[in-house]
Design a protein that fits this description.
single chain, alpha+beta
């Protein structure tokens, strides 16, 4: 559970917390309403983030859910107490993609009609983008069960009222550039934030968008953008970085360009494919989906009412599989997008992991291939070659950190080469606090020697999402009691992760000082 400071947290974030706690306790909205002497519709509005909350009502909700979800006034960080060394069991289902949802939220600005996104990940990152959209006049409404989101942009965006605080707390705000250049002649955006992963230049985005007439000047805390109206009917964009968000920005710019855009060195990763499938529903014809060359036949105007279900998240799938692997457990992870995890599964098989796959079936979007993956207790060994990420179809850059804690359970020494990010390897070396033999060779390479005799420890959460989750997973393997401090960053990319791990048998307690 996450602690809320009511001076800085949106109603949507509070509603997400309340909904998650209610569901975790097996209560319906009606049952919670009975405990609070209110109506089911009022609970629905609270969970949608569309009802103001008094201090008195927040206190009653705490009591009704037998939880300390909300802190009123001075914020206090939340921490996790983990009793490790427990085997897990059962089935856990992968939720929809965080990165896919964020891109689709930005892309909804391309459409003058109504976009309904099904089974959206209710995470902090999504709520921040929704806050930004609402601040500029977009009508964003959650369904009664908090799973679907309806988005209707206004005829004219009110960019002067943008929620700068929410925008600065997410790097995803940079993906507003692509859709906005098709609507506006000039606009300002706050600087992008996000995880502490070293220097991450935005220049690849500028290179991708200049052919569409975008010119950006960075001033104090702002991107000042102007768009030149004259552009050729046929545009070729060569990306200098095969990045996911860079490709998405170029795609969104191309979608509203009334001509043919060819994007070379494009990322074919899962969130890019999700965006392509959505754009096709809007009437944009795209050739080459799943390849590194995309040919986009854009439209000058888009006005369609569409529904789309983002695909399942391969990074969450890898997180959950890792929980089973490092605790030497047999668990089933359902709805795994296997086409985006083939290299990961092949690498794990090389390391000696025994796992079984169900027959494949389609995701709700009708395009993505899914399967249920069951991992079995296995004697792991270090791979012969180093483990390193590559753009899709290589090993996912965001999945690499999980191989550090997996390698720590294997016999032998594994070289992990994280060539993308400057600081992430440093954060991952915190596993030494739990007894792992992790040697930092340089800012990009780690030597990991196992098997580890895990032991409990107290660790402060690193300021990066995946390393934070990796340390939590290491604590599940460590005998005794561990404490992971300042865990709010985990909610940025995972919906109720600790509660879902508890359902598998993990012993995790949330507390505050």
């Amino acid at each position: 559970m996450t602690v809320i400071d009511d001076t800085q947290t949106s109603l949507a974030e509070i509603g997400t917390l309340i909904r998650g706690a209610r569901q975790n306790r097996g209560l319906t909205q009606t049952q919670l309403a009975d405990r609070l002497s209110t109506s089911q519709s009022a609970i629905a509005r609270i969970e949608q983030g569309s009802q103001n909350l008094s201090v008195e009502l927040l206190s009653r909700i705490n009591a009704a859910l037998d939880a300390d979800l909300l802190s009123i006034g001075t914020p206090r960080a939340s921490h996790l107490r983990v009793t490790g060394g427990q085997q897990l069991s059962g089935t856990i289902t992968v939720k929809s993609s965080k990165n896919g949802a964020v891109a689709l939220l930005c892309a909804s600005l391309l459409n003058r009609g109504r976009t309904t996104l099904r089974q959206v990940a209710r995470i902090v990152e999504v709520d921040r983008i929704v806050d930004v959209l609402r601040s500029i006049g977009v009508r964003a409404t959650w369904s009664a069960d908090g799973k679907d989101l309806e988005i209707v942009p206004p005829a004219e965006l009110d960019l002067g009222s943008i929620d700068e605080e929410a925008a600065r707390r997410t790097r995803s705000i940079i993906m507003f550039l692509g859709p906005l250049l098709g609507r506006e002649r000039s606009f300002d955006l706050p600087y992008a934030g996000g995880c502490d992963l070293g220097t991450r230049t935005v220049e690849p985005h500028m290179i991708a968008l200049r052919p569409f007439g975008l010119d950006v000047v960075a001033t104090a805390g702002q991107y000042q953008a102007t768009v030149q109206p004259d552009r050729p009917s046929e545009i070729t964009v060569v990306l200098t970085e095969r990045g996911d968000t860079v490709t998405e920005n170029a795609l969104m710019a191309a979608a509203r360009h009334p001509g043919l855009t060819t994007i070379r060195n494009a990322s074919p990763n899962y969130m890019v494919q999700d965006l392509c499938f959505y754009l096709e529903l809007l009437g944009v014809r795209i050739e080459g989906i799943g390849t590194t060359t995309l040919r986009v036949h854009g439209l000058a105007d888009i006005d369609r009412d569409v529904e789309y279900a983002p695909g399942e998240d391969p990074v969450e799938a890898m997180s959950l599989l890792t929980a089973g692997i490092v605790t030497d457990s047999e668990i089933t992870v359902a709805r795994v997008p296997v086409e985006f995890m083939e290299i990961e599964l092949a690498t794990l098989a090389e390391m000696g992991l025994r796992y079984t796959l169900s027959p494949e079936y389609q995701a709700a979007n009708g395009r993505t291939r899914l399967a249920d993956v069951t991992v079995h207790p296995s004697e792991l060994r270090a791979p012969i070659d180093k483990i390193h990420p590559m753009p899709f179809p290589g090993l996912n850059i965001d999945n690499l950190p999980f191989f550090v804690v997996i390698a720590a359970t294997a016999s032998g020494t594994t070289l992990i080469h994280d060539w993308v990010y400057d600081n992430r390897a440093i954060h991952l070396s915190d596993l030494t606090r739990l007894g792992a033999d992790v040697r930092l060779l340089d800012p990009h390479r780690l030597d990991v020697t196992g098997p580890t005799r895990w032991s409990g420890a107290e660790v402060s959460c690193p300021p990066a999402l995946r390393p934070a989750v990796v340390i939590l997973l290491g604590m599940l393997a460590a005998k005794g009691t561990s404490v992971l401090r300042n865990v709010d960053i985990i909610a940025r990319g995972y919906e109720q992760l600790q509660e879902r791990l508890i359902e598998l048998g993990a012993q995790i307690e949330t507390f505050r000082d």
